[in-house]
Protein backbone atom coordinates (compact mmCIF):
# COMPACT_ATOMS: atom_id res chain seq x y z
CA UNK A 1 0.00 0.00 0.00
CA UNK A 2 1.34 3.46 -0.92
CA UNK A 3 1.97 6.11 1.72
CA UNK A 4 -0.96 8.23 0.58
CA UNK A 5 -3.30 5.25 0.81
CA UNK A 6 -2.07 4.47 4.31
CA UNK A 7 -2.77 8.06 5.33
CA UNK A 8 -6.23 7.90 3.76
CA UNK A 9 -6.99 4.56 5.39
CA UNK A 10 -5.75 5.88 8.73
CA UNK A 11 -8.00 8.92 8.60
CA UNK A 12 -11.09 7.09 7.35
CA UNK A 13 -12.95 7.41 10.65
CA UNK A 14 -12.26 11.12 10.83
CA UNK A 15 -13.43 11.53 7.24
CA UNK A 16 -16.75 9.68 7.58
CA UNK A 17 -18.84 12.61 8.85
CA UNK A 18 -17.51 15.08 6.26
CA UNK A 19 -18.09 12.49 3.53
CA UNK A 20 -21.71 12.37 4.52
CA UNK A 21 -22.33 16.08 4.06
CA UNK A 22 -20.36 16.13 0.82
CA UNK A 23 -22.36 13.38 -0.84
CA UNK A 24 -22.27 13.72 -4.60
CA UNK A 25 -24.59 16.29 -6.06
CA UNK A 26 -25.57 17.87 -2.73
CA UNK A 27 -26.93 21.41 -2.88
CA UNK A 28 -25.04 24.17 -1.13
CA UNK A 29 -27.73 25.75 1.06
CA UNK A 30 -27.96 27.12 4.61
CA UNK A 31 -28.31 23.62 6.03
CA UNK A 32 -25.08 22.60 4.28
CA UNK A 33 -23.12 25.45 5.90
CA UNK A 34 -24.54 24.64 9.35
CA UNK A 35 -23.70 20.98 8.90
CA UNK A 36 -20.20 21.80 7.74
CA UNK A 37 -19.46 24.01 10.74
CA UNK A 38 -20.91 21.47 13.19
CA UNK A 39 -18.99 18.61 11.61
CA UNK A 40 -15.69 20.49 11.83
CA UNK A 41 -16.35 21.27 15.51
CA UNK A 42 -17.34 17.65 16.21
CA UNK A 43 -14.11 16.49 14.58
CA UNK A 44 -12.20 18.49 17.22
CA UNK A 45 -10.98 21.24 14.96
CA UNK A 46 -12.12 23.79 17.53
CA UNK A 47 -14.88 26.40 17.21
CA UNK A 48 -12.60 29.25 16.15
CA UNK A 49 -11.05 27.36 13.24
CA UNK A 50 -14.37 25.75 12.26
CA UNK A 51 -16.15 29.11 12.06
CA UNK A 52 -13.44 30.93 10.15
CA UNK A 53 -12.97 28.03 7.70
CA UNK A 54 -16.72 27.83 7.06
CA UNK A 55 -17.10 31.61 6.64
CA UNK A 56 -14.21 31.81 4.18
CA UNK A 57 -15.50 28.90 2.16
CA UNK A 58 -18.96 30.41 2.08
CA UNK A 59 -17.56 33.65 0.67
CA UNK A 60 -15.58 31.75 -1.92
CA UNK A 61 -18.68 29.78 -2.96
CA UNK A 62 -20.65 33.01 -3.43
CA UNK A 63 -17.82 34.69 -5.32
CA UNK A 64 -17.23 31.78 -7.65
CA UNK A 65 -20.88 30.78 -7.88
CA UNK A 66 -20.26 27.25 -6.61
CA UNK A 67 -23.59 25.60 -5.92
CA UNK A 68 -22.79 21.89 -5.53
CA UNK A 69 -21.11 20.56 -2.40
CA UNK A 70 -18.69 18.44 -4.42
CA UNK A 71 -17.24 21.58 -5.99
CA UNK A 72 -16.09 22.79 -2.59
CA UNK A 73 -14.12 19.80 -1.41
CA UNK A 74 -10.69 20.76 -2.71
CA UNK A 75 -11.20 24.37 -1.59
CA UNK A 76 -12.02 23.12 1.91
CA UNK A 77 -8.88 20.97 2.01
CA UNK A 78 -6.75 23.95 0.95
CA UNK A 79 -8.37 26.23 3.49
CA UNK A 80 -7.81 23.72 6.33
CA UNK A 81 -4.20 23.19 5.21
CA UNK A 82 -3.55 26.92 5.64
CA UNK A 83 -4.33 26.64 9.37
CA UNK A 84 -1.22 24.54 10.08
CA UNK A 85 1.93 26.19 11.36
CA UNK A 86 4.89 25.42 9.11
CA UNK A 87 8.15 23.90 10.32
CA UNK A 88 11.32 25.95 9.99
CA UNK A 89 13.40 22.81 10.07
CA UNK A 90 12.72 19.10 10.21
CA UNK A 91 14.75 17.75 13.14
CA UNK A 92 14.75 14.26 11.61
CA UNK A 93 16.30 15.20 8.29
CA UNK A 94 18.17 18.45 8.96
CA UNK A 95 21.25 16.92 10.53
CA UNK A 96 23.03 16.78 12.89
CA UNK A 97 20.18 16.75 15.35
CA UNK A 98 19.25 15.69 18.86
CA UNK A 99 15.56 15.14 19.54
CA UNK A 100 13.97 14.69 22.97
CA UNK A 101 10.56 13.01 22.91
CA UNK A 102 8.13 14.03 25.65
CA UNK A 103 4.49 13.27 26.37
CA UNK A 104 2.08 11.52 28.70
CA UNK A 105 2.13 7.76 29.34
CA UNK A 106 1.16 5.61 26.43
CA UNK A 107 1.15 8.43 23.85
CA UNK A 108 3.47 6.42 21.63
CA UNK A 109 6.90 7.93 22.37
CA UNK A 110 8.90 4.70 22.52
CA UNK A 111 7.25 3.29 19.40
CA UNK A 112 7.82 6.57 17.57
CA UNK A 113 11.52 6.63 18.52
CA UNK A 114 11.83 3.04 17.31
CA UNK A 115 10.13 3.72 14.00
CA UNK A 116 12.19 6.84 13.32
CA UNK A 117 15.43 5.05 14.22
CA UNK A 118 14.54 2.25 11.84
CA UNK A 119 13.82 4.62 8.98
CA UNK A 120 16.96 6.71 9.63
CA UNK A 121 19.18 3.64 9.77
CA UNK A 122 17.75 2.33 6.51
CA UNK A 123 18.57 5.69 4.93
CA UNK A 124 22.18 5.30 6.07
CA UNK A 125 22.04 7.95 8.82
CA UNK A 126 24.37 7.33 11.80
CA UNK A 127 21.75 7.11 14.51
CA UNK A 128 21.79 6.66 18.28
CA UNK A 129 18.88 6.00 20.63
CA UNK A 130 18.89 7.34 24.18
CA UNK A 131 16.71 5.69 26.82
CA UNK A 132 16.00 8.36 29.43
CA UNK A 133 12.82 6.57 30.47
CA UNK A 134 14.45 4.97 33.48
CA UNK A 135 11.16 4.89 35.32
CA UNK A 136 9.80 1.74 33.69
CA UNK A 137 12.02 -1.32 33.17
CA UNK A 138 9.69 -2.38 30.34
CA UNK A 139 10.38 0.86 28.48
CA UNK A 140 14.13 0.10 28.46
CA UNK A 141 13.41 -3.41 27.15
CA UNK A 142 11.02 -2.06 24.52
CA UNK A 143 13.69 0.34 23.25
CA UNK A 144 16.27 -2.45 23.20
CA UNK A 145 13.97 -4.49 20.97
CA UNK A 146 13.66 -1.57 18.54
CA UNK A 147 17.41 -1.06 18.70
CA UNK A 148 18.11 -4.67 17.82
CA UNK A 149 15.49 -4.69 15.10
CA UNK A 150 16.92 -1.61 13.41
CA UNK A 151 20.59 -2.13 14.22
CA UNK A 152 20.77 1.11 16.21
CA UNK A 153 22.65 1.26 19.49
CA UNK A 154 20.68 2.16 22.61
CA UNK A 155 22.41 4.08 25.40
CA UNK A 156 20.62 3.87 28.72
CA UNK A 157 21.08 3.07 32.39
CA UNK A 158 19.30 0.81 34.80
CA UNK A 159 15.88 1.51 36.18
CA UNK A 160 15.79 4.38 38.66
CA UNK A 161 18.86 6.22 37.28
CA UNK A 162 18.69 9.99 36.91
CA UNK A 163 17.26 10.70 33.43
CA UNK A 164 19.31 13.90 33.02
CA UNK A 165 22.55 12.00 33.54
CA UNK A 166 21.43 9.43 30.97
CA UNK A 167 21.11 12.31 28.48
CA UNK A 168 24.61 13.41 29.39
CA UNK A 169 25.94 9.90 28.62
CA UNK A 170 23.99 9.77 25.36
CA UNK A 171 25.44 13.03 24.06
CA UNK A 172 28.94 11.97 25.07
CA UNK A 173 28.56 8.73 23.14
CA UNK A 174 27.03 10.52 20.16
CA UNK A 175 30.06 12.79 19.93
CA UNK A 176 32.46 9.87 20.24
CA UNK A 177 30.64 7.92 17.49
CA UNK A 178 30.05 10.99 15.35
CA UNK A 179 26.30 10.27 15.32
CA UNK A 180 24.16 12.44 13.05
CA UNK A 181 20.77 11.79 14.62
CA UNK A 182 20.16 11.20 18.35
CA UNK A 183 16.66 10.20 19.45
CA UNK A 184 16.03 10.33 23.21
CA UNK A 185 12.96 8.73 24.77
CA UNK A 186 11.80 10.17 28.10
CA UNK A 187 9.42 8.77 30.71
CA UNK A 188 5.72 9.41 30.25
CA UNK A 189 4.30 11.90 32.71
CA UNK A 190 1.09 13.66 33.43
CA UNK A 191 1.13 17.26 32.33
CA UNK A 192 -0.70 18.06 35.55
CA UNK A 193 2.19 17.03 37.81
CA UNK A 194 4.48 20.01 38.51
CA UNK A 195 7.16 17.83 40.07
CA UNK A 196 7.48 15.60 37.02
CA UNK A 197 7.43 18.60 34.73
CA UNK A 198 10.32 20.13 36.66
CA UNK A 199 12.28 16.92 36.26
CA UNK A 200 11.68 17.07 32.54
CA UNK A 201 12.76 20.72 32.42
CA UNK A 202 16.05 19.59 33.94
CA UNK A 203 16.44 16.86 31.30
CA UNK A 204 15.92 19.41 28.53
CA UNK A 205 18.26 21.95 30.13
CA UNK A 206 21.10 19.46 30.65
CA UNK A 207 20.79 18.13 27.11
CA UNK A 208 20.75 21.61 25.58
CA UNK A 209 23.76 22.66 27.63
CA UNK A 210 25.80 19.54 26.94
CA UNK A 211 25.03 19.12 23.24
CA UNK A 212 26.98 20.82 20.49
CA UNK A 213 24.24 19.74 18.07
CA UNK A 214 20.88 21.51 17.79
CA UNK A 215 18.40 20.07 20.31
CA UNK A 216 14.66 19.87 19.57
CA UNK A 217 11.91 18.99 22.01
CA UNK A 218 9.04 17.15 20.37
CA UNK A 219 5.71 16.36 22.02
CA UNK A 220 4.05 13.06 21.15
CA UNK A 221 0.27 13.20 21.47
CA UNK A 222 -2.27 10.42 21.20
CA UNK A 223 -5.03 11.79 18.93
CA UNK A 224 -7.69 9.70 20.68
CA UNK A 225 -7.33 11.92 23.76
CA UNK A 226 -9.10 14.71 21.81
CA UNK A 227 -9.43 18.06 23.61
CA UNK A 228 -7.33 16.73 26.48
CA UNK A 229 -4.51 16.48 23.94
CA UNK A 230 -4.75 20.21 23.39
CA UNK A 231 -4.49 20.86 27.13
CA UNK A 232 -1.46 18.58 27.33
CA UNK A 233 0.18 20.41 24.46
CA UNK A 234 -0.34 23.77 26.17
CA UNK A 235 1.14 22.58 29.47
CA UNK A 236 4.16 20.96 27.86
CA UNK A 237 4.72 23.97 25.63
CA UNK A 238 4.59 26.38 28.55
CA UNK A 239 7.13 24.32 30.50
CA UNK A 240 9.48 23.22 27.73
CA UNK A 241 9.08 25.57 24.77
CA UNK A 242 8.37 22.80 22.26
CA UNK A 243 9.70 22.72 18.71
CA UNK A 244 7.01 20.53 17.22
CA UNK A 245 4.42 17.84 17.68
CA UNK A 246 3.90 14.26 16.53
CA UNK A 247 0.28 13.13 16.58
CA UNK A 248 -0.15 9.35 16.88
CA UNK A 249 -3.11 6.95 16.67
CA UNK A 250 -5.01 9.06 14.16
CA UNK A 251 -6.28 5.72 12.86
CA UNK A 252 -8.12 5.11 16.13
CA UNK A 253 -10.27 8.24 16.21
CA UNK A 254 -12.95 10.19 14.36
CA UNK A 255 -11.44 13.40 15.72
CA UNK A 256 -8.39 13.86 13.52
CA UNK A 257 -9.17 17.58 13.41
CA UNK A 258 -7.33 17.84 16.73
CA UNK A 259 -4.08 18.01 14.72
CA UNK A 260 -5.34 21.19 13.03
CA UNK A 261 -6.36 22.77 16.32
CA UNK A 262 -3.10 21.99 18.15
CA UNK A 263 -0.93 23.28 15.33
CA UNK A 264 -3.03 26.43 14.88
CA UNK A 265 -3.54 27.37 18.54
CA UNK A 266 0.02 26.72 19.68
CA UNK A 267 1.68 27.77 16.43
CA UNK A 268 3.60 24.49 16.48
CA UNK A 269 4.39 22.45 13.38
CA UNK A 270 3.21 18.86 13.07
CA UNK A 271 6.39 16.93 12.28
CA UNK A 272 5.03 13.42 11.75
CA UNK A 273 1.67 11.67 12.04
CA UNK A 274 1.01 8.11 13.18
CA UNK A 275 -1.79 6.36 11.30
CA UNK A 276 -1.18 2.77 12.42
CA UNK A 277 1.26 0.48 14.19
CA UNK A 278 3.50 -0.42 11.23
CA UNK A 279 6.84 1.29 10.55
CA UNK A 280 5.43 2.95 7.42
CA UNK A 281 2.45 4.24 9.37
CA UNK A 282 4.54 7.00 10.91
CA UNK A 283 4.48 9.48 8.09
CA UNK A 284 6.03 12.76 7.10
CA UNK A 285 3.54 15.55 7.39
CA UNK A 286 2.28 17.46 4.41
CA UNK A 287 -0.51 19.89 5.35
CA UNK A 288 -2.37 19.62 2.06
CA UNK A 289 -2.12 15.83 1.78
CA UNK A 290 -3.30 15.52 5.37
CA UNK A 291 -6.20 17.93 4.83
CA UNK A 292 -7.25 16.11 1.66
CA UNK A 293 -7.25 12.81 3.54
CA UNK A 294 -9.36 14.45 6.26
CA UNK A 295 -11.88 16.00 3.86
CA UNK A 296 -11.95 13.23 1.27
CA UNK A 297 -12.15 13.45 -2.50
CA UNK A 298 -15.15 13.23 -4.75
CA UNK A 299 -15.92 9.82 -6.19
CA UNK A 300 -14.36 9.10 -9.53
CA UNK A 301 -11.32 11.21 -8.77
N1 LIG B 1 -3.08 2.31 16.24
C1 LIG B 1 -1.94 2.95 16.52
N2 LIG B 1 -1.23 2.59 17.62
C2 LIG B 1 -0.09 3.25 17.90
C3 LIG B 1 0.37 4.33 17.08
N3 LIG B 1 1.52 4.79 17.65
C4 LIG B 1 1.76 4.04 18.75
N4 LIG B 1 0.79 3.10 18.92
C5 LIG B 1 0.65 2.11 20.00
O1 LIG B 1 0.48 2.76 21.25
C6 LIG B 1 0.94 1.94 22.32
C7 LIG B 1 1.75 2.77 23.32
O2 LIG B 1 2.96 3.17 22.70
P1 LIG B 1 4.33 3.41 23.49
O3 LIG B 1 5.33 3.75 22.45
O4 LIG B 1 4.64 2.32 24.44
O5 LIG B 1 3.97 4.72 24.35
P2 LIG B 1 4.90 5.59 25.31
O6 LIG B 1 4.50 7.00 25.09
O7 LIG B 1 6.33 5.27 25.10
O8 LIG B 1 4.43 5.13 26.74
P3 LIG B 1 5.19 5.28 28.18
O9 LIG B 1 6.48 4.56 28.06
O10 LIG B 1 4.23 4.66 29.14
O11 LIG B 1 5.37 6.72 28.41
C8 LIG B 1 1.70 0.80 21.66
O12 LIG B 1 0.89 -0.35 21.71
C9 LIG B 1 1.89 1.26 20.21
O13 LIG B 1 1.94 0.20 19.29
C10 LIG B 1 -0.42 4.72 15.93
O14 LIG B 1 -0.12 5.66 15.17
N5 LIG B 1 -1.57 3.99 15.72
UniProtKB/TrEMBL annotation:
Keyword annotations of the record: Cell membrane, Cytoplasm, GTP-binding, Hydrolase, Membrane, Nucleotide-binding, Receptor
This protein's record includes keyword Cell membrane: yes
Organism from which the protein derives: Olsenella absiana
Annotated AAA+ ATPase domain residues: 95-252
SMART domains referenced in this protein's UniProt entry, alphabetically: AAA (SM00382), SRP54 (SM00962), SRP54_N (SM00963)
SRP54-type proteins GTP-binding domain mapped to chain residues: 96-296
Gene3D superfamilies membership: P-loop containing nucleotide triphosphate hydrolases (3.40.50.300), Signal recognition particle SRP54, nucleotide-binding domain (1.20.120.140)
Keyword rRNA-binding tagged: no
Name this polypeptide is given: Signal recognition particle receptor FtsY
Domain Signal recognition particle SRP54 helical bundle, residue spans: 7-84
Reaction catalysed by this enzyme: GTP + H2O = GDP + phosphate + H(+)
Subunit structure: Part of the signal recognition particle protein translocation system, which is composed of SRP and FtsY.
Amino acid sequence: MGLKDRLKRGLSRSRAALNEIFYMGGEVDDAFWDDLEDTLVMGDMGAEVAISVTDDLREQAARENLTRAGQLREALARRIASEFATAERDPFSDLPSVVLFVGINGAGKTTTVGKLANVARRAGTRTLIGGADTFRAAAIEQLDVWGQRSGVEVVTRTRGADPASVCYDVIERAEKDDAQLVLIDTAGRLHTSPELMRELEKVVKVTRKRSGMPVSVVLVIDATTGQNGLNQAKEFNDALDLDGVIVTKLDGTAKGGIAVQISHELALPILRVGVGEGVDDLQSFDALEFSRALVGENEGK
